[in-house]
Structures
1.
Amino acid sequence: MFLFVAPFVLLLVLALIWAVKFFLIQPVFDPLRNLPGPEASLFTSHAVNVVDPQRSVIYNRKYREDYGKTFKVHGFGGYDLRLMSFDVRTITYILNSPTYEKPKISRGLLATFLGRGIFTMEGAEHAFQRKIIAPAFATQSIKELMPIFFHEAQSLRDKWEELVLPSKSTSDAPGHTLLDVSHWAARSTFDCFGLACLDYNFRAVQGETGELYTAFRTVFDLVNEKKVLRLVFPILDRIWPDRIAREIKKHLAVIYRTGQEVVDRKREEIQDEKYKSKDFLSLLIKSNLSTDSNKRLTDSDLLDQITAFLFAGSDSTGLSISFCLLYLAEHPEYQTRLRDEIASATTNHDIAAGDYPPIDSYPFLNAVVRETLRLYPSVHSTIRVATKDDVIPVSHPVVMQDGTVIPAGGSFPIRKGSAIHIPIEGLNYSQDIWGPGSLKFRPERWMSDTESPSFPGLSNVMTFSLGGHACPGWRFALAEMKVFLIIVLPRFRFLPVENQVIRRFNGILTRPFVKGRAKEGFQLPLRLERLES
Ligand code: HEM
């Protein structure tokens, strides 16, 4: 009996010792404890305050006002101390230093549906992948993709012309048609990515029936339905898969099968010496062929890389386009100004014949797109974890709990394993950077010589992050958004829906839903009025 019970008791004692150390002792010696921050008990979490877009607007500002630019919050509870900072020096340091990586837990979660793509990589392997794909997203390559962006925007415009009633044609809603613009923009950005990066036509705008499109779409949508427990412990999906895990597995099998045909076709084309294309898939395959055979990606790794890029590059841009249309619907004066700018820039050009002015000949369009990206960052926030003990620099003084002051230019210690919450949206809304009207949609701020923002993020916003993991597709996204507006705005007027409030939900991406109608799922309905062409 003793022999039977003893190991069990020993295990229990070890678990207890671990729990006391982890929950009670370690936090006492954590250097982050001395940072200012909201007080909390062992069971208090501030996570919702900083990740829920409905609350983060209020709490980011409150914490910043109460504790200064750099402070701590509690993650899952009092034991889980996390660093948070609005100090640009601190953020720049963390995001550029190889000491800070994405948390293993979120990489594991992404791996359950994106496989071994770029999101799961760190260090040399990650840097190698970034180097391979860089030419596909360089300025010149994006210029070469313009005809695809124009063609796809025109397809969506034509589709909407079939759906949107001519002005004043119905009695109940004269001249207006209600459309969920986020649904359509997502389909269009899928098609754009497919043609631009894979040389593959998903034909999602024409109909949501393609096997590969349906498989990708279903996997990306199911991720939003995952239960919190399974997000935190992805291993559950392996040992005890629920309906969502089983569905994801089934559709991933389609992606591997059908995607393989796309890869095989491209590989054949590449064998031809005259083949010059620099699209994303060609670069991946070419680099793979020229790599030392024992370092080569397997075909399934290649497909995982495609899945990761498609996931990162389609909905993020589609959602940004949708929020841009919402802002323009809420600000008709800007909508008219933008339509006028597009009309005068394109007067002597035949866009349908592929003759369009350079994308930088629309200063107000540029301002509208960047202001949209500032106010709506589709990635709300991100996390990094220290992989070793380190010291973190600050450019603004921090008054510690024990009364000591870390001066501007000084630094404070951080322990291996500590998490840092990077408030992407918070930095985009910061009054210190953007002035007192930081929450207002005001594109003019991008056109003024005196207030032109000098924020270090890509395109001067935090939206695409910065450092080694910053978004490689930012030029692609900006160009796609601009072309979409150039094509669609001259044909439609966008109006808000009466008594409808759009709220945001932060999953992996921040998605819109209608207040009071969350059960209907993510959507961003607007009223469209067809204009004379
Ligand atoms: C408006 C649209 C977009 C936004 C707001 C956006 C935002 C971001 C952000 C914030 C990150 C960094 C996440 C982190 O550090 O945790 C990121 C990474 C990434 N983005 Fe984008 N992105 C957009 C469009 C695109 C496009 C069009 C592509 C590709 C065609 C793309 C591909 C990627 C990839 C592959 C990564 C991972 C980079 C790495 O880990 O090295 N994104 N994006």
2.
Amino acid sequence: MKDRLEAYAELLERYAASANLVSPKVLAELPVHFAAARAYGEVLPEGVHVLDVGSGAGLPAIPLAIARPDLTLTLAERRAKRAAFLDLAAARLGLENVRVYNGDVQQWSGRTAYVTAQAVAPFDVVYRLVAHAADYPLTLIARKGPGWRAEAARLGAEVFHVKPLGSGAELVALRLEAPR
Ligand SMILES: C[S@@+](CC[C@H](N)C(=O)[O-])C[C@H]1O[C@@H](n2cnc3c(N)ncnc32)[C@H](O)[C@@H]1O
């Protein structure tokens, strides 16, 4: 069977323009994005559920689901064409650990203690989107550029993991022990 990451990259290339998925720049840098997605996995314990907010074309959630079949992931994406692509990708890649929620994550009715959100909003804004669904301690993970420390401070969250990803980006994980 073809490598699943390679198959995902081919799907992205095929549907990127028609479904308005990702820019040509992201397509050209896919190996960097796949490496970043693996870094999320380093923070996540065995067997947990993860809510990925604003999954877009599936970064980091699809490569993460491929690398970590022990995780169960909900991919929340409000744009219908992107959600349809996520459904298609999960089916073609045989990702039984992926569920797609097509809607605003503020209406998602599940519960979770692990949230990822890449290129969606500052940490404190993402927290407000998911607070209704949070189990505590709650872990928030994102790839960030400069400025994230102010976001963490606004939230009063503990920063427990920072990993440089190159080009000034860092993988950052925050923990909230109780609701804000
Ligand atoms: C800039 S894209 C980033 C996509 C992907 N995470 C990435 O890193 O390439 C942000 C995505 O978040 C989605 N989004 C923003 N707010 C959302 C919400 N409240 N509920 C669900 N999806 C949301 C948008 O539709 C968009 O597809």
